[in-house]
Design brief:
The structure holds three protein chains of three kinds. By secondary structure, chain A is an alpha/beta fold. In chain A, 49% of the residues lie in helices and 12% in strands. Chain A has six helices and four strands, in the order βαβαααβαβα. A four-stranded parallel sheet of chain A has the order 2-1-3-4, with helices on both faces. In chain A, helix 4 (66-81) packs parallel to helix 5. In chain B, helix 11 crosses helix 14 (373-383) and helix 13 (334-352) packs across helix 14. Chain B is 43% helix and 20% strand. In chain B, strands 7-6-5-8-9 form a five-stranded mixed sheet. A five-stranded mixed sheet of chain B has the order 12-11-10-13-14. In chain B, strands 2-1-3-4 form a four-stranded parallel sheet, sandwiched between helices. Chain B is globular, with a radius of gyration of 22 Å. In chain B, strand 5 and strand 6 form a beta hairpin. Chain B has three domains: 5-136, Rossmann fold, CATH 3.40.50.11900; 149-229 and 396-408, Nucleotidyltransferase, domain 5 (2-Layer Sandwich), CATH 3.30.420; 242-389, Nucleotidyltransferase, domain 5 (2-Layer Sandwich). Chain C is 41% helix and 17% strand. In chain C, 36% of the residues are buried. In chain C, strand 2 and strand 3 form a beta hairpin. In chain C, helix 1 crosses helix 2 (49-60). The chains are: A alpha/beta, B alpha/beta, C alpha+beta. Chains in contact: A-B, A-C, B-C. The A-C interface holds A 8, 10-13, 15-17, 19, 27-33, 35-37, 39, 44-46, 93-99, 122-135, 138 and C 1, 3, 6-7, 9, 11, 68-74, 78, 80-81, 86, 91-93, 95-97, 99-101, 103-104, 106-107, 109-111, 113-114, 116, 118-119, 123.
């Protein structure tokens, strides 16, 4: 089972399909869950504190807006753990954690520069495209399973 | 108890900068509540297209749709607070255009702010206070003329000012250094009353503003106790006779600086700086003392000099003054040194505060430092626009208070 | 709240023959330790990871290709996210979920027909017109204009 970074990282469809095809989707929701149950921190709504944008300096300099760096801090564990990635284009309705275009550009750039298997595709707009979409994700997931089975 | 003021928060990035809690604290402190306008998911794209600004970030698109929900959908709010990340270009464009759109189309008070992760509730509080005041006291703020016999006291960190006004005329002024807050206020007020030739008991309403406003207001039973952003905005456009439309008000004070973007006499967005003495009137005070001239002579002296002839290594009140002293020892003229000091203050305010603000004409300089002509000239040079300094500009807070207090005269 | 609890959302595709109430009923019948809450999208299931996953595994059987599952950071009704507490409109994540839900029937169809061959016709591309073709068009248009 591979840990697959999905983009948008809060996508219902992607997290469902990845889990359905036997892998672990790396989602923002799990990061948020950890955040909001962190003991001793009270910074509603999602317990992001001014420390997070500072942690985001790992990915972007101080002249990059705090909102970008704060979001990067949330995405950091996903990027670090990713063994594969599925990036969906034209996901223009990704609000909240994925609501900043600059952050999204940076995340995709960083993922593309990681030496991991990657699938990039567009969101479907009709049934035929959806079939192709589902097939591609299944095939990608299967290829990761086979890879894992091949001894090094 | 009256109902809470509903402040719509249109934001991108505040939750991810760790400052949402600070915003909520500031809102709670002024007895208001944050609300998020209803938006139908399917209409977000259409709202953005209709509004016409093609921003890439979905959260900015959501801000636009929420703004339209207020303006066109009639989502009930009393005021709007717009925030985006500092240094984000598309955020800044959206923020400033939304502010204009909501102000013009929904006639609601709007305040905008660009934050960093260091933004605190204290920083936001004055803004919230101004926003809530604007929402609650719309009729009062619409006042363009002073009526009756009223007075205003501006209890500042360095100086305390008082004015007495009768039927839209300033008839008495008082100006003293702030020592003990109440004593200084009393002294300035007595001076103004004496000049006006009226007794305290005749004053129909008193307004207070500035750092000591609460203390002075309570002691003197003021009808109006108001933060200086609202008062100075109103006072500046009143004195400059620019009450309608946009204006920019710059107030370089003894302890902090304010740059306010005003619309119809109401503050819209503003920057307040108060960390560095090198960007304050204090720096000029020290320079005047070092040059052995009165502060009132510093301006004309600077006007005759050329700042380019003195190398300033720092804006700092310590190291910058060192540069001035070095220049003098190397034979620089007093005029050039005075000019360099004025330029240094203006440049720091320009670099660190005015960059965050949309500077629209007329630009009005107020406060004690607006009397230092060299400083005004330096600011004009940096902004490449004419700066208006109205008569009585040094009494801005007191005039604004007296004007607004007249709203309480029966 | 105990920190090892997890929450998952179970979302029904509009095309699913299963009703949200049926889904809820089945969840209640399962009597695992998970707590179930009905929503307009389907269900929110909270509890230990084991209980939540078991519940969901069973629920999926009702309509494998029409039931979708997503992790949720917040437990149901958390005041930090709750719409009733935080005045007025929805939180950003709601809009995203609503948008994604709209294409679930297609995804559901995709899953049902996953082994069918994909129609090889390419998606329309937005390549720029070749300059030679543009010149031809201009010339044709000019001729028409002259003759017309």
């Amino acid at each position: 089972m591979a840990k697959i970074l999905i983009f948008p990282s809060n996508s219902l469809i992607l997290s469902d399909l990845v889990a359905r095809f036997g892998h672990e989707p790396l989602t923002l929701m799990r990061v948020i869950r950890r955040k909001i149950t962190e003991v001793g921190i009270d910074s509603p709504p999602i317990n992001v504190t001014p420390e997070d944008p500072k942690r985001g300096l790992k990915y972007a300099a101080v002249d990059v807006p705090s909102g970008v760096r704060g979001r990067m801090a949330l995405l950091d564990p996903l990027i670090e753990e990713a063994e594969a990635a599925i990036i969906v284009h034209e996901a223009d309705y990704s609000f909240g954690c994925m609501g900043c275009a600059r952050t999204n550009e940076l995340v995709k750039y960083i993922v593309r520069n990681k030496d991991i298997p990657r699938l990039e595709l567009a969101y479907p707009t009709n049934d035929d495209e959806a079939r192709e979409f589902v097939q591609k994700i299944r095939d990608f997931c299967e290829s990761l399973t086979h890879k894992a089975e091949v001894p090094a | 108890m009256t109902r809470k003021i509903r402040i719509a928060h249109l934001a991108c990035g505040s939750e991810y900068s760790g400052i949402q809690k600070e915003i909520e604290h500031a809102v709670a402190a002024v007895n208001a509540e944050i609300v998020y306008p209803e938006v139908d998911t399917d209409t977000i794209k259409d709202a953005v297209r209709e509004w016409g600004l093609e921003v890439a970030s979905p959260d900015l698109q959501l801000m636009i749709a929420r703004a339209k929900s207020i303006v066109e959908g009639g989502f009930p709010v009393d005021a709007v607070f717009i925030t985006t990340c500092f240094r984000c270009a598309e955020g800044a464009i959206t923020r400033s255009e939304l502010r204009r759109y909501i102000h013009e189309r929904a006639n609601l008070p709007v305040i905008s702010y660009s934050f960093t992760e260091r933004t605190t509730a204290e920083t936001l509080l004055t803004r919230m206070e101004a926003l809530v005041t604007t929402a609650l006291r719309r009729t009062l703020l619409a006042r363009e003329k002073q009526t009756g016999l009223t007075a205003g006291i501006d209890s500042g960190s360095t100086t305390t000012k008082a004015v007495v006004m009768r039927d839209n005329e300033i008839i008495g002024v008082g100006w003293v250094d702030t020592t003990e807050v109440l004593k200084s206020a009393e002294l300035a007020y007595t001076t103004a009353l004496k000049m006006a030739g009226v007794n305290k008991s005749e004053i129909q309403a008193l307004g207070t503003t500035g750092y000591g406003r609460l203390l002075v207001g309570e002691a003197m039973k003021a009808a109006l106790v108001q933060e200086e952003l609202t008062v100075n905005s109103k006072g500046a456009v009143y004195l400059a006779e620019k009450q309608k439309g946009p204006a920019t008000v710059i107030d370089i004070g003894g302890m902090d600086n304010k740059a306010i973007s005003v619309m119809d006499g109401i503050p819209g967005s503003f920057t307040m700086g108060g960390i560095c003495a090198g960007a304050s009137g204090r720096f000029l005070d020290m320079t005047a003392r070092r040059l052995g001239v009165d502060i009132s002579e510093l301006g004309p002296l600077a006007s005759k000099g050329d700042h380019n002839r003195v190398t300033m290594n720092s804006y700092c009140i310590v190291f910058g003054t060192q540069s001035l002293v070095n220049a003098l020892s190397l034979g620089a003229s007093k005029e050039d040194v005075a000019s360099a000091a004025c330029y240094s203050v203006a440049e720091q305010v320009f670099d660190q505060q005015l960059q965050e603000l949309e500077i629209v004409e007329p630009v009005i300089m107020v406060g004690g430092t607006s009397l230092i002509s060299g400083l005004v000239e330096a600011m004009q040079d940096l902004l490449r626009t004419k700066v208006v300094v109205p008569k009585y500009s040094q009494y801005i807070g007191a005039v604004g208070s007296a004007l607004l207090a007249s709203g309480f005269v029966e | 709240m105990v920190s090892d609890e997890i929450t998952k959302m179970v979302v029904l595709a509009d095309s699913s023959p299963i009703l949200p109430s049926e889904l809820a009923l089945r969840a209640y019948e399962l009597s695992t330790d998970a707590v179930v809450k009905e929503t307009c999208f389907g269900l929110i299931v909270t509890g230990s990871e084991k209980a939540v996953n078991e519940t969901i595994e069973e629920l999926r059987k009702l309509d494998p290709s029409g039931i979708f599952v997503k992790d949720r950071g917040f437990p149901p009704g958390d005041s930090r996210r709750c719409r009733a507490v935080r005045g007025g409109g929805a939180r950003p994540g709601f809009h995203q979920l609503e948008k994604e839900s709209a294409i679930l029937p297609s995804i559901s169809y995709g899953l049902e027909t996953i082994d069918d061959p994909v129609d090889a016709k390419e998606r329309k591309t937005r390549d720029k017109l070749k300059i030679d073709r543009l010149i031809e068009i201009i010339e044709e248009q000019s001729k028409e204009d002259v003759n017309g």
